[in-house]
Specification:
Largest sheet: 7 strands, mixed
Bound molecules: biotin
Strand order of the largest sheet: 1-2-3-7-6-5-4
Strand content: 25-35%
Number of strands: 12
């Protein structure tokens, strides 16, 4: 990442586990892929991989993630999930980004279940967790910081936004990244310290689909109804028109106007 070094990111960061080791690359295929490769070579919990740009950025549901070189935060962390609670790692990451953006930039960042990050109804960030073996996951985070969404590939531009489109203040990517890492470290400790419930409550409070009419598509199934709330696993509960409850651990939710 231009102007950012591993030393700048980790110096006096004060985290317990997150980003205790860091590697910064000018260009990678994908920071998630690099984290998976590092896990195969024995890298442990807490490794941070950062890239200035990606040539094959990965997104949820087999999609690709495009960036504007130097205008985004693109990073992955090797983190350990509790068995049966794998879905909570991306929730912790999305919460860390949303809270850091709110705190540092005074912007009303929201989470869109399960872990999209939105401002003014448009997406500025996302999280993708991929199993790395031995209970570890590569938790990848992409944040559009400075740029114009119109410069992204045409199929993504309309639904995307950059933080800089919402504030006139200059945005320091290093400070923002360090704030996210500190919050994620705190969330990670909560997750492993039996305090996952408070993370879910905080994430649900920032979620923009709860209470609204949504169309949810997952594994070829489509359900329309009102999003009721998050389960302790991070699953979303939807009540359809007949009053039946449906629970989804993953999927794509579209707000109905
Ligand atoms: C999504 O919204 O579907 C998740 C997008 C995750 C993108 C980030 S960018 C850094 C990391 N490396 C990747 O290849 N993907 C994640």
């Amino acid at each position: 990442m231009t102007g950012l070094t591993a030393e700048q990111i980790t110096a006096a960061l004060g985290t317990h586990l997150v980003a205790r080791r860091a590697a910064v690359h000018q260009q990678l295929d994908s920071t998630n892929l690099e984290a998976l490769r590092q896990a195969e070579r024995g890298a442990g919990e807490g490794l941070l991989v950062v890239a200035h740009t990606q040539t094959a950025g990965r997104a949820r549901l087999g999609r690709t993630w495009a960036d504007l070189p130097g205008g985004c935060l693109l990073f992955s962390l090797l983190l350990r999930a509790l068995t049966g609670a794998e879905g909570l790692l991306p929730v912790a990451a999305a919460l860390a980004v949303a809270e850091a953006v709110r705190d540092q930039l005074n912007l009303q960042a929201r989470i869109k279940w399960p872990n999209d990050l939105v401002l003014g109804g448009r997406k500025f960030g996302g999280v993708l967790a991929e199993p790395a073996g031995g209970g570890l996951f590569a938790v990848g985070v992409g944040v559009n910081v400075t740029g114009d969404a119109a410069d992204l590939p045409r199929d993504l531009a309309a639904a995307a936004t950059f933080l800089s489109e919402h504030t006139d203040a200059p945005i320091d990517r290093l400070s923002l990244l360090r704030a996210i890492l500190r919050r994620l470290d705190e969330a990670y400790l909560a997750l492993h310290g039996g305090r996952a419930g408070q993370l879910i409550e905080r994430a649900q409070a920032l979620d923009c689909v709860v209470g609204s009419e949504v169309c949810l598509v997952a594994a070829g199934k489509e359900v329309r109804g009102v999003a009721q709330g998050w389960r302790p696993t991070g699953a979303l509960v939807i009540r359809d028109r007949r009053g039946h409850l449906h629970e989804f651990q993953a999927g794509d939710a579209t707000l109905q106007q």
